[in-house]
């Protein structure tokens, strides 16, 4: 059903589990204030050493609180911010040294869906033009009914192609945002908080749509979210970020957390079961996240951590498989509780 | 440091829990738009007792915020208007008050915390002065000594809501505070005149999870000390499950279900509540990986064009092809006791 005239997105000769994205030592720093004598007053260490890979057909999720750098990582993957250091490789091709043609290919194959569907479209454009714009930009010949087909694919009526954004609800508009991202038949979708602006009953519709599209088209997702429950329900692998670094990574870190920050994050999510009230151990962190312009020495979480010892201030814990269970953990004391 | 140990917020003698401190009867609020009159809230009734927390759940446009604004007399008119009803705080009908008495009542009878603390604080005034302003607004012609006392009280209130170094913070501006700190300032401000009812409209939606936990703990603390009745407006089922005594579920401007939190979340008797609980991802078992969620199909109705019968009927899975749901507006009725009421014609058939 997906533009049958053009070649299929899923190449059957490719093995499942093929690595598409490899991020190594990614650092993204933003200088603040005026430059004096070649020095900036302050630097925001938004992303400060992040490594991960994304395989074909997989969903990798980045969770963390505001300011942890998760959206900056997402934006760097589609070329919206330049890394300060480290490498981003797409199918083995380094973004920094890629030729123009390679960048064109990358921009086709890695697409992004934004949080606020209304803020990411031009309100004066018809849905048809919104959805077809990526094809126009890339100079790809478009079928007469491309917009209609894409709308159908995301569960909307084809006649909506002639309407304007203000005629839609938030959930419908996010479907249109997804249709636009699919127009170039990408391999990877970067989903930056795709449901957090939507009502609960609509969130489930969009999550289900994304999961269906993944199964149908073999897409890979990098999902950026702060809703731990949604992430747990849809991800193959979860990366927990705190202040620019990954503190814990693995397929089940949200069910079986080993890092104190992940434990606190999970404990802070109120359970929807009334029966669990007061029965579970509550970890309430004190204070706020430190400023990313001046992160603490050693482990960045130590200022709010109840396990913090002297070693935490002196030595930065590396992200290693510390428990032998396959999950990576950046804590000197990764005891399970 | 955030643990609130001081009892700076005035202790009030404990009133028995049966004491209804806020009662709302037949509240209907409408807005006049180009496309005609829209009922944002229709015939809402509820009571809030001292020391109790009532959760109001619903999606955007369900009327939960308009209910709160109606209580405080904050509905902009035109285009809005409270067309009928009675809102009583300790027996005094707020809707019958003139402007001056309503101003006196807001803050001391009913106070409110808003969702976004940045937009509800004035960016060009110091924190301490903004808290003191609320206190002084309730005094006629405050003397210099009154102003000094209000300033000191502002610092005490900041300490009571767990703001570290309150003296220094009182002299700072809102942009110098983090989101969690700003929300603490809002709570200090709301509690400054010792209200009987505190309306918290999505108080933690703009905050991160770990900060949300701190703020909810603070609200519980404040309630324990002052016995204030809290109306918690939220769309987060988890917050409701962990923090409230009774719940009111709203849909398209009407209350569709109401009762104790154990009953409504544990044994829902309205198809909308059932749907809402089903699509809440945190209710999935923790080990469920890659599980589909169960959404409610369709979209909430357009408030300018509500269906004549039950507003939820077009999305309801229970309805089947029964005519009654499309023709007759269901009333809230016992399901089966008065402690748990539902507005569904076929509530006996609802299964969680």
TrEMBL record, chain A:
GO terms for biological process: peptide transport; transmembrane transport. It holds the Pfam family ABC_tran. It comes from the Bacteria. PROSITE patterns: ABC_TRANSPORTER_1, ABC_TRANSPORTER_2. This is ABC transporter ATP-binding protein. Keywords: ATP-binding, Nucleotide-binding, Transport. NCBIfam families: oligo_HPY. Residues 21-266 form the ABC transporter domain. Belongs to the ABC transporter superfamily. GO terms for molecular function: ATP binding; ATP hydrolysis activity. The keyword Cell cycle does not apply.
TrEMBL record, chain B:
Residues 22-277 form the ABC transporter domain. SMART domains: AAA (SM00382). It comes from the Bacteria. Its main location: membrane. Pfam families: ABC_tran, oligo_HPY. The keyword Lyase does not apply. It is a peripheral membrane protein. InterPro entries: AAA+_ATPase (IPR003593), ABC_Ni/Peptide_Import (IPR050388), ABC_transporter-like_ATP-bd (IPR003439), ABC_transporter-like_CS (IPR017871), Oligopep_ABC_C (IPR013563), P-loop_NTPase (IPR027417). It is found in: Cell membrane. This is ABC transporter ATP-binding protein. It comes from Streptosporangium carneum.
């Amino acid at each position: 059903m997906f533009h049958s005239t053009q070649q299929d997105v899923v190449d059957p000769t490719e093995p499942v589990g093929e690595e598409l994205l490899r991020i190594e030592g990614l650092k993204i720093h933003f200088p603040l204030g005026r430059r004096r004598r070649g020095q900036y007053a302050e630097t925001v260490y938004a992303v400060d050493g992040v490594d991960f890979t994304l395989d074909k057909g997989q969903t990798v999720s980045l969770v963390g609180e505001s300011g942890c750098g998760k959206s900056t990582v997402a934006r760097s993957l589609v070329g919206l911010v330049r890394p300060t250091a480290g490498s981003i490789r797409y199918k083995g091709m380094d973004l920094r040294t890629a030729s123009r043609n390679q960048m064109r290919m990358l921009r086709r194959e890695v697409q992004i869906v934004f949080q606020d569907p209304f803020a990411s479209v031009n309100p004066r454009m018809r849905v048809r033009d919104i959805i077809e714009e990526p094809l126009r930009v890339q100079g790809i010949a478009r079928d007469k009914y491309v917009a209609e087909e894409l709308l159908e694919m995301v569960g909307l009526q084809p006649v909506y192609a002639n309407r304007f954004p203000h005629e839609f609800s938030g959930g419908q508009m996010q479907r249109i945002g997804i249709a636009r991202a699919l127009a170039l038949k990408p391999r990877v979708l970067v989903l930056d908080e795709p449901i957090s602006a939507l009502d609960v009953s609509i969130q489930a519709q969009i999550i289900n749509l994304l999961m269906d599209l993944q199964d149908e088209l073999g897409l890979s997702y990098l999902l950026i979210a702060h809703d731990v429950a949604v992430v747990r329900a849809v991800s193959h692998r979860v990366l927990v970020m705190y202040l620019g670094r990954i503190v814990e990574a693995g397929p089940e870190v949200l069910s079986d957390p080993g890092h104190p920050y992940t434990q606190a994050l999970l404990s802070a999510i109120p359970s929807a079961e009334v029966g669990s009230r007061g029965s579970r151990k509550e970890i309430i962190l004190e204070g706020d996240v430190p400023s990313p312009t001046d992160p603490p020495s050693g482990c960045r979480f130590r200022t709010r951590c109840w396990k913090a010892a002297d070693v935490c201030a002196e030595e930065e814990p590396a992200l290693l498989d510390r428990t032998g269970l396959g999950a990576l953990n950046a804590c000197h004391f990764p005891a399970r509780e | 440091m955030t643990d609130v140990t001081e009892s700076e917020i005035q202790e009030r003698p404990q009133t028995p829990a049966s004491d209804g401190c806020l009662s709302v009867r037949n509240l209907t609020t409408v807005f006049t738009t180009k496309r005609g009159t829209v009922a944002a809230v229709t015939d809402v009734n509820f009571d809030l007792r001292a020391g109790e927390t009532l959760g109001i759940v619903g999606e955007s446009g369900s009327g939960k915020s308009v209910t709160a604004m109606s209580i405080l007399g904050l509905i902009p008119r035109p285009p809005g208007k409270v067309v009928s009803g009675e809102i009583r705080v300790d027996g005094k009908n707020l809707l019958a008050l003139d402007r001056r008495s309503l101003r006196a009542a807001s803050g001391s009878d009913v106070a409110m915390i808003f969702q976004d603390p940045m937009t509800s604080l004035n960016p060009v005034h110091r924190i301490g002065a903004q808290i003191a302003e609320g206190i002084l607004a309730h005094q006629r012609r405050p003397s210099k000594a009154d102003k000094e006392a209000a300033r000191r009280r502002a610092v005490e209130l900041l300490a009571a809501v767990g703001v570290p170094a309150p003296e220094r913070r009182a002299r700072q501006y809102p942009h110098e505070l983090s989101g969690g700190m700003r929300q603490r300032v809002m709570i200090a401000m709301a509690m400054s005149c010792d209200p009987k009812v505190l309306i918290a409209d999505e108080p933690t939606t703009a905050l991160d999870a770990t900060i949300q936990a701190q703020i909810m703990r603070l609200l519980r603390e404040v309630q324990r000390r002052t016995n204030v009745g809290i109306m918690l407006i939220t769309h987060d089922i988890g917050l409701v499950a962990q923090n409230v005594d009774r719940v009111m579920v709203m849909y398209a401007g009407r209350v569709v279900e109401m009762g104790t939190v154990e009953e409504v979340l544990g044994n829902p008797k309205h198809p909308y509540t059932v749907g809402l609980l089903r699509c809440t991802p945190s209710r999935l078992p923790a080990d469920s990986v890659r599980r589909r969620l169960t959404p409610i199909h369709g979209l909430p109705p357009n408030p300018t064009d509500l269906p004549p019968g039950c507003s939820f009927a077009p999305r309801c899975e229970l309805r089947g092809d029964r005519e009654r749901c499309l023709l007759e507006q269901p009333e809230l009725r016992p399901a089966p006791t008065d402690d748990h009421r539902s507005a569904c014609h076929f509530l006996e058939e609802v299964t969680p």
